[in-house]
Specification:
With about 350 residues, the chain is α/β, with parallel strands linked by helices. The chain is built from 16 helices and seven strands.
Length: about 350
Amino acid sequence: MRFASPRSVLLAPLIAAGLLIAGLVQAERTPAAADPLAIADVPATQAPPVPLLWQVRGEHGTLFLLGSFHFLKPSDYPLSGDVDQALARVDDVVFELAPDEMASPMLATQMMQAGLRSDGSRLDDELPAGTVAALGAWVQSNLPTLQAMGMSAQTLQMFEPWFASLILTTTELGRYGLDPALGLDTNLGRQATEAGKPTSGLETAQQQIAFFDGMDRLEQVQMLQEALAQTEDGQAQIELLHGAWRNGDADTLWNEMAVDMRARFPALYARINTERNDAWLPKLEQMLQETGDTLVVVGALHLLGEDGVVDKLAAKGYSVERVCSACDAAPATAKYPTVPFPAVVEPALVPEPSMPETAAP
């Protein structure tokens, strides 16, 4: 089954951008807003999400690679016991962006400065007439949400198309109950901090911003047009992607999202996914050379398929297993064995040498 509309593949880069836009949204929330992380009292109405979790063993260290969805709902919690065990076991947790940088009020300022137009023109000036009309209609329908983020129709005109695309997509995801403040990265960052585990990032905020700010103008306008198209028929695609993540369905996420995006938008796909994965590999291999266990939490797209870091690490000879206590045993044709959460392998105990008995004097 393919997506109902090929333009839905653009949800992939827009959702991937959620890690950045989450920081913007949270920074712009008013202090009186309810804390969306107060999820402990939400009654569980369905089974926990099946995690996209892999274990990679190196010469000394072990990595647990966890595929995140940057926008989630209260009903997506509690998490799988596999994730809880991984977090409890590891010595440190690594994210795309370090939690302290993600929570910094400076992130919103950095994003807005990067997204500002610098030539005195307006956003509408570089858009086709039909796109101008569609954007104007969307803005009028979403003024309360924009105002809650400190924006208006006039201020949106001050930004480049890539930034406007992120605002549109985040608003649409929120319409269906998906909140960046409930994203897996945000939740696990908070848990790691509370547990006293060191956290860090594979990238800086400036690097993530540059992936979008470095897009050429035609690509940016196309991204905005696709975001506007999603406001009309995007709910089914959003639900499909979120449902596939909840079900731990790596094949659907890869075949129905990444493959289409790679074919239709190769430059954007390379910038968002492949180039970043390749830049992360040396850092992940360094972790595997160090003693201890590390949990690495990144967007699910970065782990999947032949372009994902899981396959790339396996190709380098590392031992890889899918960790999934809720999954059936993997078929013989599966790429990686599927196992329940692995027990800690302790080094064999070597008994102390016994001293020979001596005769009493």
